[in-house]
Amino acid sequence: LNLSIDSDVNAETPVTLTVKNVTAEDALNRVLASADYFFAVKNNMLFVKSTTTKTYELGFPAVVQTYNTDLGGDMLGGATTGSTGGTMVKGNIAQKTESDKSAYNFWDVIEKSLDKIIGAKTGPQQITVNRLTGTIVVTATKKNLEKIENYLNTIKKVINRQVLIEAKIIEVTLSDGLQFGIN
Q1: Judging by beta carbons within 10 Å of its beta carbon (0-12, 13-18, 19+), is residue 145 exposed, middle or buried?
Q2: pLDDT tier at 53, thresholds 50, 70, 90
Q3: Where are the alpha helices (DSSP H) in the chain?
Q4: Which residue, of 33, 41, 66, 142, has the greatest Cβ tally within 10 A?
Q5: pLDDT recorded at residue 17
Q6: Residue 127 DSSP SS3
């Protein structure tokens, strides 16, 4: 095979390998995987490169969810009795609950997680997230691409979880003849 090596591939990387009874493709795959490189064979040419680009689809809508609840006011009615110094009952009850807005921003969390998986972006490694289409384009080394693929497959499994709920509605009419209640 003729050999074409990308400029960012270190051709001097030492690899030690002992193989017996394997195909040339299996041997190439093993040698280049241990050096964290990709390869392709086309038209009697062996192409070796350090990164490749892959597109993933999550299919999650670009939605930011928020949750707010307010409860409060003069719950006791501000009641007063008599004008001669009778008892006065007055009070306020207030409660406010808000969600963690950053926890519901799905795409920001995905981007930060993918950046951490790649770590320090060296060379041509990059991640592009298209929130509108729900796609992620990743250019990375072989090992980082495998980590990202595992992470995104886990995310897909979690997002697509469904719960089956079976409910039975039973109507009961009570009368004076039923003195023992319902079991």
Answers
A1: buried
A2: very high
A3: 24-34, 106-118, 142-159
A4: 142
A5: 85
A6: strand
Instruction: Please give the helix or strand (H or E) that residue 55 lies within, else none.
Output: strand 52-57
Rounded mean pLDDT, 93-120: 76
